[in-house]
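Handout, section B. The chain below has 432 residues.
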Amino acid sequence: MDPTNLPQRNTPHWSLYQRECFESGTKDHKLPPFNTHPDELEDLARQRLSSGGWSYASCNAGLGTTHLANRDAFSHYHIIPRMLVDTNQRDTSIELFGKKLSAPICFSPVGINKIYHPEGELPVAKVAGELGLPYTLSTAGSVSIEDAAAYNARGAAEGCAGGKGAQYEDGLRWFQLYLPHQEDLATSLLKRAANSGFEACIMTLDTWQLAWRHLDVALSNYGFYRGIGAEMGLGDPAFLELLKQRGIDKDADAKAVGRTWIDQIWHGKAFSWERIPSVIQEWKELSGGKPFLLKGILSVEDAIRAKEVGCDGIVVSNHAGRQVDGSISSLEALPAIVDAVGSQMEILFDSGVRGGSDVFKALALGAKAVMIGRLWIYGLSIQGEEGVRHVLRSLLAEFDILMNVGGFRTIGEIDRSAIRPSAVIPSANGRL
């Protein structure tokens, strides 16, 4: 785009990042931080990370067939471009839970970010705030709830001041809940999230136990058991009381602290549908009625049940292929779920997104917004805050340009008429 000939838009001209990259390389002889093609991104992250960091970032369940199915599913659909459409004033914004988002892209919750970068989740939360995109903090995160909120707000304030895309000076953040075994710990975490301005709670359902991930097991690669990633617990009075009861010195035995923390919020106890209404009620009471979602829904029956028990939305997700080997792909599950409950609740999509066309296809099949994880993990691993920013600005520019050259003016125009399924699903190449 020519910046001297830009029409007024309701959302940032994300596509100008392309021009910025070209100009900085030719005028100032400063190339972009790195190549954001997913294959190149993966290779560079592998070079930068420790063996354990790379293993945890890249491992999938079992043989990795669900991971490959996620990528194959996108190849099954093709976009139908439209010509002679005036897309100069296109609008990438959506309304979600009463909030305006600058684009239909959200940060997926990813735990223990300190194995990817010393600052953990903090730079990720900050960049999300800058760009006006929802940031989701995992219960398995390696910083405190309060610090993540503060960095998200800091990024949002800078984004508002600099016109980078932020819509809210305090940021927009969601809290992903792994429901602890102990009710007092669950209450404490939810209260801290509500008090820290988190606008929604997303409870993940598919991780009662880690799947069998061959490389992680071979390396004994589990950060919490190595004493990394319990910061959220160490800032929680209910968890500190538990450590005291068990005689664990929080300053002297980091490995025992890490094991105790993750065992309390993650391992060994599956919950049934009967537990969900009380969790929803508690979050609503603590947060003043803010949205509650379930993540990990892949069947129509579960989607309907989620609506019946009072959820405001769901995330169609197979945990990026990291939990159930041989599972249905998330994209394959999406259309039927949208048809069943899409008019009654908000449906988000997660798993396998690698580029602007993937975002487009998930929206066309009925997702309200798309969540991404591994892309920003790799950016964080490569270059910290600037790496996350470069990856996200590149994805936003790619999506914005796709709308421009494809002939789509608004997100609302991206529906099933904009894509066509192919007759043959190509096989995956084994990479991203």
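Note. The longest strand covers residues 292-297. Compare this with the example in section A.
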